[in-house]
Write a structure and sequence with these properties.
alpha+beta; VC0467-like; about 20% helix; globular
Amino acid sequence: MPQLLDPNFSRTVVLLCEHRDEGAMGLVLNRPSDTLASQIVQLDSDLAQDNGLTVWLGGPVDPTRGWLLIGEDYNEGVTIAPGLYLSASRELLRRVLEAPETPERCRFLVGYAGWGPRQLDGELAASAWLTVPVDPELLFDTPSELMWETAIRRLGIEPTALTMGPGVH
């Protein structure tokens, strides 16, 4: 929303992966980079082949941390939502990178979005974020440059109609 002034989150779609009393963690999903995962990952040995998996910028916190967001259960991660899994397994990353083709529903993200205790709750109360149901089709099949507007339109809102508001207190 316009009242969230942090440039790290301007027009972003964030998948909220965890929200507890201790804080929250999410991944920005619509910021691809021009870097290949094979160029930055450090594995025990060289890759047998490289399928060209792109790096996505998952958020400003700990940009050396990598995550695989996948639409297939490899039994090496946690379920975020039905049909959506998150893993930090190096073995799974190697298998994905060496596969003849990148899995259709797969993202390698570096960094994450993090919030301290009750920080996200305050931002939600201030209407700094809109929430939409998790939809793997939106996350994997929508071009990154259209994802933010598509998510907002799914709420029945025209993106150009968004204005700063006082929030809920």
